[in-house]
Amino acid sequence: MPMQAKKPKGTRKGYTTGACAAAATKAAVLGLITGEVPAQVETLLPNGTQVLFAVTEANCDAKHAHAVVIKDAGDDPDCTHKAHLTADVQLLPVATEPKIQLFGGDGVGTITMRGLGLEVGSAAINPVPRNNILANIHAIATELLQKHSLAVTISVPDGEKMALKTLNSRLGIVGGISILGTTGIVHPYSTAAFRASVVQGVEVAANRGLDTIVLTTGGRTEKFTIKTLPDLDSASFVQMGDFLGPALDSANKTSIKHIIIGGMVGKLTKIAQGETITHARRNVVNTDLLAEIARSIGVAENICAEISQAETARYAGERMQELGLNNEFYQALARKVVTTLSTRYPQRFSFSILVCDFEGQQLAHYQELLNE
């Protein structure tokens, strides 16, 4: 588990399954290079920071290395807290392409449905963790990879049991958990401390005399909105996580007039359907609503039916991209978000919605001004 000082309850961050998998992999590869798996390893996270992780169950020989990093989820524990993220790295005798082959082992799920941004039949190792694992290998194994290839298998003992406490089966992920994480860090989004920090962020903006705040759901959307809105004061940007309701209720007590929300299809759909706390462990995405939005822009009924029956909002986005209807669809979704929020706060705010994809590229910008 990572080496970090003890912090007050409710504020201690943790690390994602992806970050822990990358750390275990790096430790195992170091074992192949040096002949000994280290007891701790410094790993580059997707957000660019370096973190020291403790390594357990370490062993290696000339052709194989094994390392485990135990996940610490901080003050936002979920079913994967204390999971043993395990990396087994096999040295292949001949350099082949690709030089690094990444597999999912026991306890890592397999993708069986579209809509998750991963190929059907592949291991449920999301793109950011996958790239982070590869980056950490390349950082230390340049010479090794000139002569050899590596087979990396990520496994999670009891991962199949952990997955029973998630939505994985509904999403078509079978046999285990997903290896997740976009920054490598788990912030305590579900704690009172994080909720208080969201409220404080809104109050700081108002106290500085600003009339606009930008609410984002996470690190990627915040980065996207900052890039899109470079002229706004930095205090205008508030990473609200899942706490839309507390953020808007706080803004309602101040002089804030303009609300800009940056988000991706899943969170925006939850907002459109009336959710003010958008955590994944709460209500599921209303895919019937997405089908209705698709229908409103002229999408064929059979595709609308598929969207309605899907388990993820991302599936709808993938179908719209295939049809060349991205802008129309996301404009309609953003309009629905504004309609929902305007009903909750009538004649109180003007709303703008910035929609981005999972790579942080803009898909739509919808604005509705307040009639004063």
Spell out the key features of this protein.
Beta-carbonic Anhydrase, Chain A; CbiD-like; alpha/beta; 22% strand; 372 residues; single chain; globular; 5-stranded mixed beta sheet; 18 strands
Explain what you see:
This protein has 372 residues and is an alpha/beta fold. Helix 1 packs parallel to helix 2 and helix 8 runs parallel beside helix 12. The protein is globular and about 70 Å long. The chain contains twelve helices and 18 strands. The mean pLDDT is 89. It folds into two domains: 173 residues, CbiD-like (2-Layer Sandwich), CATH 3.30.2110.10; 177 residues, Beta-carbonic Anhydrase, Chain A, CATH 3.40.1050. The strands form six sheets. The protein has a five-stranded mixed beta sheet with strand order 4-5-6-10-7.
What's the short version?
This protein has about 375 residues and is an alpha/beta fold. The chain is built from 12 helices and 18 strands. Helix 1 runs parallel beside helix 2 (about 125-140), helix 8 (about 265-270) runs parallel beside helix 12 (about 325-345) and helix 9 crosses helix 12.
Question: Using DSSP, what is the number of strands?
Answer: 18
In terms of per-residue confidence, which ranges show pLDDT below 50 for 5 or more consecutive residues? none
Biggest beta sheet attributes = 5 strands, mixed
The helix-and-strand class reads: alpha/beta
Overall structural domain count: 2
Q: What does the average pLDDT come to?
A: 89
The CATH architecture category of the largest domain equals 3-Layer(aba) Sandwich
Could you give the order of strands across the largest sheet?
Answer: 4-5-6-10-7
CATH top level class name of the largest domain? Alpha Beta
Which fold name is given in CATH as the topology of the largest domain? Beta-carbonic Anhydrase, Chain A
Query: Strand content of the residues, in percent?
Result: 15-25%
| Share of helical residues | 25-40%
Overall shape: globular
Query: What gyration radius follows from the Cα positions, in whole Å?
Result: 22 Å
